[in-house]
Amino acid sequence: xxxxxxxxxxxxxxxxxxxxxxxxxxxxxxxxxxxxxxxxxxxxxxxxxxxxxxxxxxxxxxxxxxxxxxxxxxxxxxxxxxxxxxxxxxxxxxxxxxxxxxxxxxxxxxxxxxxxxxxxxxxxxxxxxxxxxxxxxxxxxxxxxxxxxxxxxxxxxxxxxxxxxxxxxxxxxxxxxxxxxxxxxxxxxxxxxxxxxxxxxxxxxxxxxxxxxxxxxxxxxxxxxxxxxxxxxxxxxxxxxxxxxxxxxxxxxxxxxxxxxxxxxxxxxxxxxxxxxxxxxxxx
Length: 284
What we know:
This protein is mainly alpha-helical.
C-alpha cells in the first residue's frame, strides 16, 4: 500500500508540474502574441485612439478605410509583389546551395574540409552591417545597383544555412546508406537529389521559414541599393508612410498588419515540418 501511495503521489507531482508548465507556456504565449494583436487593434481604429486612456483593446471598424489610405499613399501591391519575388527566389537559392554545401561538409572527404567549415562558422560571428559597404561596392562594380538582382543574389549565400544543413544531414543520412549508393555507382548529385533531399525536408522547412522571414523583413540592404520606387520592397514602402509632421498610426499599422499576413501564412503552412526540424535529434 505504501508503494501504491508513493506511486500515486509521484503521478500527482508530475501532474502538478505539468499543469504549472502549461500555465507558464500559456502566459508566455499571450505576452508574445499581444503586440501582434494590438497592432491589429490600432490598424482597425483611427489614429487618435492610440492616446486613449485606457488604450483601445478591441478592434474597430476602420480596417478597410485605413488600408485604402495605405493604397492611396504607396504602391502597396507592387511592393508586395517585389517582396514575394525577392524572398521566394532568395530562399530557394539558399535552400539549394546550403544543402549542397552541407552535404559536402557532412559526407565528402577533401583537403581543408575542417578549416573551410571553421571559416564558415567564423563568418557567422561577423555582424551583417560590416559587410554592407563591401557588398555595395561589389553591386556597383557589377552594375547591379537599383536592380532586383541586387536584392536576390547576395542572399544566396548563408553561413547559418550551411551549418544547419551540415548538422542535419550528418544525423539524417546514415553513412551506410551513403556508402551503399556509392557502391551502386550513384554520382554525388544523384545521391544528393534522390537520397539526401527526401531525408531533409524538415530541415528545408525550418531554414526556409527562417530565411524567408529574414529577407521579407530586411530594410537596410534594400534601402542601400534601391532608389527606383517601382522596385521597392514592402519594408521600404511602409517606411514612407511615416510623415515628418504627422504619423497616421492607424494607417501605418494597417499596412504593417497586411505585410505580416504572408509570414503568418508561410509559418502555418510549414508549421509541422518546422517543429520537426527543430526537434530532430532531441529524441532518439
